[in-house]
What does this fold into?
Amino acid sequence: EDVKLSKNISTYKVNENKETSLPKASKTGYKFNGWIQVDSSGNEISSDSEDYVLNEAADKLIKGAATDVILKADFESITYSVTYVPNGKDVKCDGESVPSKTVLTGISYSDGTNDSSDSFESLPTDWERDGYTFKGFATSAKGDTAITTLAGLTTKKSIKIYAIWEANTNEITYSTNYILDGTEVSDGSFGVMGTTESQTYGKAFTPSKINQATYVFKGWKLVGTNSNVKVSKAGYVTSINKNNTSDVTLEAEFTTYTYKLNYSPNGGTYNSSKKTLKLNDSDSVKYTDDVAALVSPLVNTTKKGYTLSYIALDKKGKTPVISADGTIMYGESDSTITGLSSKNNGNVTLYAIWTKVKPNAIEELTASYSDGTLTVNIGESAFGAEAYEIQYSTNMLFIGGVTTDQISCSEEQTSYTYTASGLYGSKYYVRVRRIQNDSVGEDVKGSWSSTVRALKSVN
It folds into this structure.
């Protein structure tokens, strides 16, 4: 039973002249009052018995004691006062303020009761405090482990016990409804929308922000009314103060990203201008606006000596938007162009991307001459131009007596045979070059092929 002795003894010497001292016993929470002599069955032996060998104070054996002795420590439970305190402001019970302290006196260490029948069951269980739930009493002001008895609380004369208050939590709900460009929309799932967070009473709460690639998050609107919710002059929730005791629902408001859309002919000419110009009549377009109607006409930009490859989002042409033939190359749609800027109030400039017209020289060329007819064959590898220019002459330097002719070919052709009849020379020199149109519609002529000679064939 956790009893300690000042010294351990199991035998003693018979002393006819003086009393034999016995050890003192101690036990936490109890006062030692001496020893009780008992028989082998544990029954107390009366002081009137001839076998009784304890002195009057019951702390020594009498003179001449000469018998085996069984002793039992006599303990008395200590008592103390228990003061229970509200441990918080504005604590009430049945609408009335709770005293700052209440004292229970004479509480027994052993069983936690006193002569007035006060015990653990005497403690209040229905205290109330705004924003908190009463969870019992602890032995320290910051304690969170509730006691279950008044017994064994202290070995001192008094102890304070403190009410345990658990802060309540409120649900902060981020609604899936939202406002976009002034219109109510449902079933949103951006960021924290559709989730809840908890606000602990006594702590201010700041709502989470939303980062969204398409819309500008303006802020949260309060659904309903709540005096503990702080809002800005613009009407957006900035915080929920620490004294809030109600659940709160918030609704997000967005505006669509807008940007300015410009166009640079990038050295070319569009609508008789070489300058960068604003495509939209208003100051900006929305991220979700289809700008295909604004962009499609740009394929009519021209530049002498060049053909338009495509219109791009950057000057180097890394992000094509629409091809020269009007095919949409940006995004997943083949009919609309949206979202050219991911920054609100961005400044987007589209650029014409040019390819210099430079017809390649013809390498696959043969010629023959017979019966006054010159036959020129342009092989497969030579094709890929809108037209060809052929020259033939009896002079290898094409000085004097030069005939120049131009031929057109269809896209389906893979070779071409040219004939010239009624000729009388003994030999002819022939050369050919490609002709391609630039975006202005002018011919751009390539380099001449190597000259081939056709000798008159004699039958």
User: Anything to note?
Assistant: The first helix runs from residue 292 to 295. The CA atoms of residues 108 and 264 lie 95 Å apart. The chain has a mean pLDDT of 93.
